[in-house]
C-alpha cells in the first residue's frame, strides 16, 4: 500500500501518542499486512505471524507516549517485530524444555515464562464471550452486520425494523463489548478494539 499525498505519518504518530484510537487504526491498517507477511517469511507459521503482529501493536499502544520521538516508524516497527519473533522462538524453545523436564520430574511448580502474555487466541475467546453476553437481538443484528456483511438497510428490511433501530442496536452491542473487554484488558483495550474490529 502506498502512502497517499495527504498521509502525514509524523502527525498520526503524534495523535496516537495523545491517545487517538482513529490514528492508531490508520497505522494498524497501513502496516499490519506488511508486518504479517514479513513475520511469515521468518517463522513460516501463519499462527505465529498473527500472534506477533498482535503483540507488536499491543505494545505500540502501551508505549504510545514514545511514538512522537520516532523518526523512522517503519524501521522501528520491523525491528520490534524481529525482536518479538526472537522472543517467541526463545519462549517456545523454553516451553519445550520445561515440558520435557516436567515429564521427567512430575513437578507441578515449574511455570512457563510468558504465561501472562495476551495472545490473539485469548482475546478472540474473550470477544466470543462478550458476544454471547449480548441480548439475542443485539447478537443477531451484530452478526448479520459483521459476519454476513449486510448493510444497516438490508438488516432493517430483513428483520422488519427501522434502519435507525439497527444502527442504535449495533452501537449498543459494540459499547457493551468494549466495556467487557476493558474490564478484562484495561490499558490494552483500545488496541484490542482496533486489532479485532470492535469499533
Number of helices: 9
Helix content: over 70%
Name the shape in a single word: globular
The fourth-level CATH homologous superfamily of the largest domain is: RNA polymerase sigma factor, region 2, helix turn helix motif
CATH topology-level fold name of the largest domain = Rna Polymerase Sigma Factor, Chain: A
The proportion of strand residues reads: under 5%
Unreliable sequence segments: 1-5, 94-116
First-to-last CA distance = 22 Å
Biggest beta-sheet profile: none
Please give the domain count.
Answer: 2
Number of strands: 0
Name the average pLDDT: 77
Query: How large is the radius of gyration?
Result: 20 Å
Q: What's the CATH class label of the largest domain?
A: Mainly Alpha
CATH 2nd-level architecture of the largest domain: Orthogonal Bundle
What class do helices, strands and sheet pairing give?
mainly alpha
Oligomeric category: single chain
User: Element order, helices and strands?
Assistant: HHHHHHHHH
How would you sum up this structure, described in words?
The chain is mostly helical. It has two domains: 97 residues, Rna Polymerase Sigma Factor, Chain: A, CATH 1.10.1740; 76 residues, Arc Repressor Mutant, subunit A (Orthogonal Bundle). Helices cover 72% and strands 0% of the residues. It contains nine helices and no strands. Helix 1 packs across helix 2 and helix 3 packs across helix 9. It starts with 8 loop residues before the first helix and ends with a helix.
